[in-house]
Amino acid sequence: MEPSRIKNPDLAALVDENEMAWYRYVAPISEHYASLIAKRDYRGKRLAYWGHIVLENTIPMVLALKQAGVEVVMGACNVDSTNDVAAAYAASQGIRVYGWRGMSQADYQENLRLVRAFEADYLCDMGGELSEAYLDRQPPVKGALEATTSGLNLLKGRDLPFPVFDWNSIPLKERLENRFHVGDGVWPAFSHVTGLGLFGRRVLVIGYGPVGKGIAERARNLGALVHVSDLDPVKMIEARHHGCEAVGLEEGLARCQVIVTATGFEGVLREEHLRQVRPGTIVFNAGHSNREIDIDWLARQPHQRMKAHIERYEIGEKFLFLLAKGSLLNLAASDSAHGLDLFDHYTAVMLLGIAWMFDEMPADIRPGLQPYPAHLEREIAALSVRIHGGGG
Amino acid sequence: MEPSRIKNPDLAALVDENEMAWYRYVAPISEHYASLIAKRDYRGKRLAYWGHIVLENTIPMVLALKQAGVEVVMGACNVDSTNDVAAAYAASQGIRVYGWRGMSQADYQENLRLVRAFEADYLCDMGGELSEAYLDRQPPVKGALEATTSGLNLLKGRDLPFPVFDWNSIPLKERLENRFHVGDGVWPAFSHVTGLGLFGRRVLVIGYGPVGKGIAERARNLGALVHVSDLDPVKMIEARHHGCEAVGLEEGLARCQVIVTATGFEGVLREEHLRQVRPGTIVFNAGHSNREIDIDWLARQPHQRMKAHIERYEIGEKFLFLLAKGSLLNLAASDSAHGLDLFDHYTAVMLLGIAWMFDEMPADIRPGLQPYPAHLEREIAALSVRIHGGGG
Amino acid sequence: MEPSRIKNPDLAALVDENEMAWYRYVAPISEHYASLIAKRDYRGKRLAYWGHIVLENTIPMVLALKQAGVEVVMGACNVDSTNDVAAAYAASQGIRVYGWRGMSQADYQENLRLVRAFEADYLCDMGGELSEAYLDRQPPVKGALEATTSGLNLLKGRDLPFPVFDWNSIPLKERLENRFHVGDGVWPAFSHVTGLGLFGRRVLVIGYGPVGKGIAERARNLGALVHVSDLDPVKMIEARHHGCEAVGLEEGLARCQVIVTATGFEGVLREEHLRQVRPGTIVFNAGHSNREIDIDWLARQPHQRMKAHIERYEIGEKFLFLLAKGSLLNLAASDSAHGLDLFDHYTAVMLLGIAWMFDEMPADIRPGLQPYPAHLEREIAALSVRIHGGGG
Amino acid sequence: MEPSRIKNPDLAALVDENEMAWYRYVAPISEHYASLIAKRDYRGKRLAYWGHIVLENTIPMVLALKQAGVEVVMGACNVDSTNDVAAAYAASQGIRVYGWRGMSQADYQENLRLVRAFEADYLCDMGGELSEAYLDRQPPVKGALEATTSGLNLLKGRDLPFPVFDWNSIPLKERLENRFHVGDGVWPAFSHVTGLGLFGRRVLVIGYGPVGKGIAERARNLGALVHVSDLDPVKMIEARHHGCEAVGLEEGLARCQVIVTATGFEGVLREEHLRQVRPGTIVFNAGHSNREIDIDWLARQPHQRMKAHIERYEIGEKFLFLLAKGSLLNLAASDSAHGLDLFDHYTAVMLLGIAWMFDEMPADIRPGLQPYPAHLEREIAALSVRIHGGGG
């Protein structure tokens, strides 16, 4: 098989064992399972991992699997998210790794092809592309994990010859990650980029699903005057009950000083909306798509970079500021990992799911999309409560 | 048909038209529909209403129907909730009414029999007993509305010869009423009864469904140190993310000064739990059942009334205070209507549902439990947003 | 000396010892000192009390003094606040009492004259009128306590022949009572009277001193969209930092649905302002004066009573609702004692202050306004922390 | 006079005019005054500035003064806070600048000597050292501004031959900066350094003055279980009313997972306290002094660096993590300017104060510490309200 394709193997030397110890320390749930799994004998198991490659979660997980004897191959599921030090470090531990920050789309596809060539028996996927690539494997892979809505959408219509366990829809992820994690990260990133606080600022949150709720709640707690716009009138009434001002989109655009999209849809803020904002409005996106704001139209207006992550656009007589070019602000403009304690749960979900596929998955399990085993989720949540909750 | 059975017809004179005008004023959504419906010609329609009979919501609704020519008969769905002035007033307007505050269970059943004898074509039910009583009508009634979980449970197993439209499960009710209304009412009732604030008090909320969430959120906003106990560990993690301390039940009992049950189950606090509370703990219930706390066991311990709605129980060397004898505190110990603006939505749901059954229900609708028409819910929510939301 | 002048001595029989036990139970700080003081020998001490006469705080305090042998005479400092059962009960215990609910201004003055005739050596005053009445006593009284700003203002210019200890300005009162107690009581009273919640409602708080801050904070916690108007621009900036919208008075009047005055000044809302409110606005007062709103002008507009504590006024084409006729809403429209745990501190302040004047006050203390002894305040606060704070 | 002493004059080329435009844009209040003052004729005025030298506030202020003809000399008041690009840029504009990041204490003193040698007529000081250095100037300087508590303490006992205007004590600074700014910055820095959120974490805030209040309030809003310890029992009761658990120091140390000092005193956490914390506790400082935690004792325990700003100390069998080596976390570990909108007010305070000393200061003003002119503060606050508050 092909050797690793990474930025630079020498970067492995930059890994600081103390820093790794910190990341393990703040992830006690997955660390608990990692240390159990590392002691097992999983020799002969072949696993392909397709996901983000970072120091904080990925490395402890794959090292534990490696230590148990699993043959692991890793590919980066995103052209931008790879920490090249982490990739080099994994490679230095005898894991084949494919991916680097800033790779081209062609390289991305080539990497996917190479991970497919590994002929894994088990998959740990984020985005569905790995499962899709393995559809034609004979015999079929024994099982796969899938983490994302877009992955599920991609696989939904396909005739899957193997079971894919959906852990995107488990309460532990649905009720926590979107609801809390984005809002918790977006406003520190906003302040980091702009230098501004939220005190007394009129903020418009477009979209009041879990992501929008979290963003709105956090903004209100930071002192903002939060306005909410959503097409669903029941959500508008909910927003009022959470202390937000429910407004029509036009009214919100006309009144607010900071506007954030969190709808999950593309093209939410288009030319006709962007022309309506108050002069000097700060606009950014925190939804799933990088195209909730029509950045193509904006790109055709006169614009200039103010500072890192702030672009100024002239729209007729007016101007607005766009942050992070319309990408998800908390991912694009944050300078540090955050929410490690929350992600700890999801690393555990992957680890336990993989071990369960190895050890306990019924032989006669049906192929196709399946729910992630509820007893594993419950076990992880219960451990979290024992560690974090309760008095102690 | 039998004449009305009410406390005293003369009480109708106590109705203050100005007070009624206030109740209409603070219910603009249902008032909007009531005024439209009052102008229609519904002569020949026969409707039986089985629900609470109070001035604030019931009277404007049934008067509008009456004015449109509907023949309405009303029965009280609860032996304690009837406002006898409201009942007398409805009777004075030519509506037959069956129910009074404090009636016996036998009278309750007799009233149900009398309302059944009316041979209505349409039902507006709370609790399922009216629909059950009409199961044998020939030809079957044309349609029914049902408002409650217990009603749905009662009817679920039955072979229904007519459609029953469930408006208990619509988002407008599920996402608002339990989530906000109980919490909003429970703590003012607590302060009204005890004279105490929540500042700095350790409060244990048992059960973290929508009702528990609302109670916990409101308590935290009132300055309490909120602890949450729930059997579902994912809910425990949610509670932590809402700023509550997640505790095991035993630990919560040992630490907290105020304990509230909100589980929806019976027998949540039993002898073994009640023996563990700190001396002087204040205990009350805000769940669906009046038996979340084992009041039978408590009744066998030495006890005395301290003041209205406060009973002191001796448990060995310890003592605790139970509020409202374990009934739902916000209903039992509140001295005034509250949340009229929220209930406004539900009066509109009933009014629009009745009019839709009269006018638009497809002739070939299937019998059995059916969802309440989504377009009606959406219309009501949109009107609410127009009236309450937005800037103006 | 004149016998008691009260509503009806027979009312003493209505006192429920269990209810009294509850009031003692929820006031552990003052109860601690009351039980200590009751055991002392204060025979020969003559104390005049001029204050509110209610069951919850007053009775346990005066009974402890009485039990220690103090000769106590009580007069009601307010024509409306007396609980006639409490007055009768005190009288039944051998204390002379002067005052009843609804007495005339002439009776009030006559009662003050009678308490003055007692020739007390020590005073416990609320409002300064008792101290003023005693200015001419020879020899001068030995010491007095004063609880209110208006009392201090009344006495400030006078040539006081005895020391008056000001406990209005101690941090324990300044930082807690105004800041928390009013806001905590005002919104439950609002909901009690109107039947409405605050969710999503635009509320204007006029005046952002401690009272206004507490009202605004609590309203925001109850889900309101809080607007603040204050003449001091620094307070406006503070309001923004607390998540409120700072607005000019005119703008606030034009936008808000609920308006509350909390300035401490008279004539804040006058004709020109009341003409500007939105139709249907609910207006009330929570400041120190009952005349923050120009009720004389309103009284000349067409008006009608809607229900208890709600009056509707027509102003040209518009109308508004005034609650509690412009009196302090939390006092006028609350149906129950609240904040007993907070007031517990102040009962202790009086008790300890009285005992200190008896026992420890230096013989050579200067006459005139003096600070309340800081070590007593500190002792009370420390006991509060031991009882309520800390883990236990 | 000596030329500038800075890191590297070539760094001036790194200034990005667009970034400067952003800093001006988010500081509309001081920008307003800067543009007015830049047009005046202040030739012949000699001003020494002793303060932080950064791009965001300092440069626009001194450029405006320079443009008006003022002769300005700048010195850095802190060995670590200088932005060397800003210093180079100021020097490139013809201003003499003394200071660079990481200078020695000896260089610091030498710089102070050089700024003293300028023989300024007006001073703008942070920390009092500049004013102290100028005590012997003959004739005395005409006026000085002082920004800090420590500066006021330094000057308090001295016989000042010129007026020093204290803007540390103005409400605009006292009620906003400490109360909001530290809390707003400290928790994002915490998450930046540790990767952790505050959800459900037990946090102990030691000291409940304005700084502690802001830190506690913000932590609670971020989902923490906030505990407060303060020697003043009234502050403890206040903390309870703000929804915090008031605890003794020992109890707080034994229960909490994150501990922050905010007392303003040195030696608050000493050996005996540090031995009591739970294993793995995260400790940091947000008070005025860098020595609230006994870092000397900690330095003698076995320790190692985990990652940037996190040190692990072994204390017997236990271990704890100290952030930023005990320095103020929000200053030491923040990677970006924040609160620019709040600091905007203080830049305006300096600018307006300087112009007032030039133009309007009475000739017969008394030497010594004087309050900053109240009408200037009011004007700035009113402009802030016009710009930020109100509806628009």
Briefly, what is this?
4 copies of one chain form a homotetramer. Chain A is built from 16 helices and 15 strands. With 392 residues, chain A is of the alpha/beta class.
Secondary-structure blueprint of this entry?
The structure is a homotetramer of 392-residue chains.
Chain A: H1 17-25, H2 28-38, E1 46-51, H3 58-67, E2 71-76, H4 84-92, E3 96-98, H5 105-117, E4 122-125, H6 129-133, E5 143-146, H7 149-156, E6 163-166, H8 171-194, E7 202-206, H9 210-221, E8 225-229, H10 233-241, E9 245-246, H11 249-255, E10 258-261, H12 271-274, E11 281-285, H13 295-299, E12 303-307, E13 310-315, E14 318-323, H14 329-332, H15 340-359, E15 368-371, H16 374-388
Parallel strand pairs in A: 1-2, 1-4, 2-3, 4-5, 5-6, 6-15, 7-8, 7-10, 8-9, 10-11, 11-14
Antiparallel strand pairs in A: 12-13, 13-14
Helix pairs in contact in A: 2-3, 2-15, 8-9, 8-15, 15-16
Biggest sheet layout of chain A: 8 strands, mixed
Measured on Cα atoms, how large is the radius of gyration of chain A? 22 Å
Name the quaternary structure. homotetramer
State the separation between the terminal residues of chain A, measured CA to CA: 50 Å
Q: Determine the mean pLDDT of chain A.
A: 94
Q: What is the count of DSSP helices of chain A, taking H or I runs of 4+ residues?
A: 16
Task: Please report the total strand number of chain A as a whole number.
Answer: 15
Structural classification of chain A: alpha/beta
| General form of chain A | globular
Given as residue ranges, the uncertain stretches of chain A (5+ residues, pLDDT < 50) are none
Order of strands across the biggest sheet of chain A?
A: 9-8-7-10-11-14-13-12
Into which percentage range does the β-strand content of chain A fall? 15-25%
Proportion of residues in helical segments of chain A: 40-55%
* Pair with the biggest interface: A-D, 43 and 43 residues
